[in-house]
Amino acid sequence: MLNIFARATVSRVTDPIGASLVRVGLTPNAVTLFGTAGAIAGALWLFPAGHLFAGTLVVWGFAMFDLLDGAMARALGGGTRYGAVLDATCDRLADGALFCGITWYLFEVAHDRTTAVAALVCLVLAQVISYVKARAEASELDADGGLVERAERLIITLVGTGLTGLGVDYAVPVALWLLAAGSVVTVAQRLLAVRRSARTVAEAPERTAPEGKALEGKDR
């Protein structure tokens, strides 16, 4: 949802930074890998150790590189297909590490198995939400939008961990159960969007696809 309303504003800030990074010789793929490695390391090192506030700052900081690699690609005249697949893959790895680290914290430090269930639900549905869109696009269907996309997932989750790190004990449970509910809604929204898109395509003039070959797309 934020992708729709905030993209232009964010681009005005990140595009000059991305252009500067390109001028000093960095590549979008290098920035993608660096940001992902940092986010994974922070999530799997700091959260399981109970350092929630520090983990929030580290993961959020490295997650911001995901904005810069896109700005760098635009500065170069557009991204490559490989870069798009790499970016989507790294996003899934970073999301998985985030929820794994939080789940580990909930089991081993907070001893809160109920909220750990919510974290696992968020982990699974984060992947499903992205896969629905990727598979729809591979089938030339539309699955854009939804209540909770990646930006919302990061904001809700990291606000919860950050506040808990500052002493608000109930922030993580509230954030994760809210995110779990929103993720269920988003999966339903995307499946309905695909259904509408499929009906539109079926009513349009018939298009020919390569015989016997399934279309595959990147997961985002």
Structural commentary:
With 220 residues, this protein is mainly α. It has a single domain, classed as CDP-alcohol phosphotransferase transmembrane (TM) domain (Four Helix Bundle (Hemerythrin (Met), subunit A), Up-down Bundle). Helix content is 76%, strand content 0%. The radius of gyration is 19 Å and the shape is flat. Residues 208-219 have low confidence and may be disordered.
**What's the number of extended β-strand segments?**
0
CATH topology: Four Helix Bundle (Hemerythrin (Met), subunit A)
Could you give a short account of the major beta sheet? none
- Helix and strand composition category: mainly alpha
The low-confidence parts are 208-219
Radius of gyration: 19 Å
- Mean pLDDT reading: 89
Helix content: over 70%
The succession of helices and strands, N to C, reads: HHHHHHHH
CATH class: Mainly Alpha
Looking at the overall shape, the CATH architecture is Up-down Bundle
CATH-level-4 superfamily name: CDP-alcohol phosphotransferase transmembrane (TM) domain
How many DSSP H or I helices? 8
